[in-house]
Write a sequence for this structure.
């Protein structure tokens, strides 16, 4: 590719990883161009995560991105685990001394896009034909066609692949270079957004013989609920009435009622664990879902994406000043957290989902584990520590 433009860091993808990276770099005086195939409206409306770890909240505050988060984020001091006809509370505040904050990913994305544009950042929505080349040189090139049909070849010092699981950056690594560890689960989540106030003060994770269900929220008047369904389920076969009926059964508890309301959005998400290592090749650095995927049961994906770029921004800063030591350590620095979250997400998933109606052994093992967590302070503390996250995130952005 022929380079006809110049920036310091080319960023592919306007999800949480790419957006926060461009902001953290700008704070360090480093310019970037961020390219995104979707429109701004699409990125801002895509329903995904809802829970921020304490460290992610601290990171967004430190980055000056938290004015709306501070107003509208809802702090949660625990979760409910429901199984065998009982609903038991796990108190994060008491066990781990930390909380989580319910603040939707859509809002994080809106906040960072608004800030980048207000700061005059280069964010190109609606691009096509994204390509990366020259990765093993010190002048890699990011190619794309902008929304007006103009082709650009951007000469960069480094490229960040923040383009999610289906992006083009990970496949650009040389054949055989990556080691991939992967697990697919035989079920998926059917998620709805409902125009009804949440029926609970904190999230309910319910293990039920008919399958897992989760009650989350998007704010004081909007609920977010999920049902375990089979991995090849068709969304058309689920009327709103059928969804509410199934949710009623899986959350059923004497004296408690699930409030129903109009369904605003409905989708099915497959479940996968995936880690590709190392997270960099030459001058291309992967961050977030481009490098790793966790099933959503542990609420970790968004938090991992933010954690990666909190490490990458200072590492690129050093690289641009002639010192490659932090980028050389980038993959290893991230992977400790990635594998901890991968394990926790797998553990929560396998404890709460039904694999097969015939597997009585599995059912008893799950129930034994749930009884242990809700009766042993040590076991509950382990869940609380993992769910609320690992506290060194904000400190990392201070690496120079
Ligand atoms: P994203 O958000 O997928 O963004 C990648 C962006 O790259 C763009 N792109 C390209 N741009 C230019 N050229 C190309 N060739 C491109 N190819 C792709 C895409 O359009 C997109 O805009 O990745 P990022 O930034 O790494 O962020 C990761 C998070 O989005 C993800 O991990 C979380 O949403 C996962 N997740 C959850 N994480 C949590 O921490 N807590 C949760 O409660 C939680 N719940 C969830 C979740 C994910 C879910 N789904 C739908 C997968 C619940 C669900 C249902
Ligand atoms: C969500 O609100 O979308 C959500 C919350 C917790 C999870 C997964 C998703 O574990």
């Amino acid at each position: 590719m022929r380079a006809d433009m110049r920036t310091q860091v080319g960023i592919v993808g306007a999800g949480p990883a790419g957006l926060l990276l461009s902001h953290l770099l700008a704070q360090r005086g480093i310019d970037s161009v961020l390219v995104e195939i979707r429109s701004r409206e699409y990125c801002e409306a895509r329903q995904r995560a809802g829970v921020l770890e304490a460290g992610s909240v601290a990171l967004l505050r430190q980055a000056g991105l938290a004015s709306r988060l501070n107003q509208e984020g809802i702090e949660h001091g625990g979760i409910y685990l429901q199984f065998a006809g009982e609903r038991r509370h796990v108190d994060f505040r008491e066990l781990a001394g930390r909380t989580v904050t319910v603040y939707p990913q859509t809002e994080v994305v809106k906040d960072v896009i608004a800030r980048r544009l207000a700061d005059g950042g280069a964010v190109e929505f609606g691009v096509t034909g994204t390509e990366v080349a020259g990765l093993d040189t010190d002048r890699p090139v990011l190619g794309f066609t902008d929304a007006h049909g103009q082709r650009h070849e951007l000469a960069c010092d480094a490229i960040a692949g923040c383009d999610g699981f289906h992006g083009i950056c990970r496949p650009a690594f040389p054949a055989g270079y990556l080691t991939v560890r992967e697990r697919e689960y035989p079920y998926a989540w059917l998620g709805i957004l409902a125009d009804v106030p949440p029926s609970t003060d904190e999230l309910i994770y319910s293990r039920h013989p008919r399958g897992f269900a989760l009650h989350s929220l998007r704010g004081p008047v909007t609920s977010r609920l999920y049902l375990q369904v089979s991995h090849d389920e068709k969304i058309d076969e689920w009327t709103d009435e059928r969804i509410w009926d199934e949710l009623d059964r899986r959350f059923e508890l004497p004296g408690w009622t699930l409030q129903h309301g109009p369904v605003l959005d409905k989708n099915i998400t497959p479940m996968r664990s995936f880690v590709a290592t190392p997270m960099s090749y030459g001058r291309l650095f992967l961050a977030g879902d481009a490098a790793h995927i966790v099933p959503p049961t542990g609420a970790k994906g968004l938090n991992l994406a933010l954690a990666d770029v909190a490490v990458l921004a200072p590492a690129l800063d050093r690289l641009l000043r002639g010192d490659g030591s932090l980028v050389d350590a980038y993959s290893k620095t991230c992977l400790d957290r990635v594998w901890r979250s991968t394990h926790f997400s797998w553990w929560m998933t396998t404890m709460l989902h039904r694999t097969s109606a015939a597997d009585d052994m599995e059912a008893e093992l799950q129930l034994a584990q749930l009884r242990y967590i809700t009766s042993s302070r040590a076991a509950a503390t382990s869940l609380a520590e993992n769910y609320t996250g690992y506290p060194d995130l904000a400190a990392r952005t201070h690496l120079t």
In short: Residues 252 and 376 are 25 Å apart (CA to CA).
